[in-house]
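Hey, resending since the last one bounced:
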Amino acid sequence: MNRKYEAMIVLDMKGKEDTVETLVSQIGREFEQSGAKLEQVDNLGKKKFPSAPNHVDSGYFVNYLFEAEPATIEKLQAKFKLKENIYQHYFQRR
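The C-alpha cells again:
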C-alpha cells in the first residue's frame, strides 16, 4: 500500500562542480528508481545554518513530495547516507 511522504534534503555544494539543478534532478531519479512516485519538488534555496556543524555554514534545501511503499523509505535513507553531496535528509509521512 502506497503512502504519501515528504523528504527534506539538504545539499552541501561546497567545493562541488555540479549545479544544484543537476543534483536535484539526480536525486529525483533515485526516488523514481527506488519505486517512489514524485508528486512535487520544491527548491527552497540556500540557507545559512545558525552554527557551523562540521565546517558547513550553509546548504541548499530541497523538499520532495512523493508516494511510495514504507519499505522504500529505508532504501532511500541507506542510499542517501552514502552520497557526499547530501548533508542531511529527513523523511516524514504526510
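The helical segments are 20-33, 70-82.

Sorry for the duplicate.
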